[in-house]
Amino acid sequence: MEKMLSDCSEETQDTDRDFPPDPKEEAFLILRAIGVMGRAMQDVSPSLISSVLRCMRKTDISLSNQKAAIQAFRLMEITDEIRSALLEVYQDTQSPAEKRLAAYLVLMKNPDHTLIREITNHLMDEKDEQLKSFVVSHLYNIHNSDDEKPE
């Protein structure tokens, strides 16, 4: 999968096929498959994580593929490296709100107090009112929830 995903360039890798797939769609489907396999994929191919992180950070690929890369982490163990990269995406005001929101939601699958503090501190400077409103509402609902683990 790493070879197929390569650098998320959305360029056709295998032109020997009679009907080569759309490179954008192929990258999207690979990222989705990685996400569905989650932790198993993470355990079998730890180096794949760096490829997915590269896709997540690229801004010259389609937004749907950037979000698919972020969402690929939803069923994985969120390591410090992944958490840091997701937080960077969430805090990047130059990124589209959809991408930032996807990063926030994956981060919040298993937050700790430090992460919540960092997110709330960042809200003070947030310019995107819709994103800010969603995050505030989400954090409020978590705070008032009886659940042990927020989602």
UniProtKB/TrEMBL annotation:
InterPro entries: Apolipoprotein_B (IPR052418), Lipovitellin_superhlx_dom (IPR011030), Vitellogenin_N (IPR001747). Pfam families: Vitellogenin_N. Residues 24-139 form the Vitellogenin domain. Residues 1-23 are annotated as: Disordered. Residues 14-23 have a biased composition (Basic and acidic residues). This is Vitellogenin domain-containing protein.
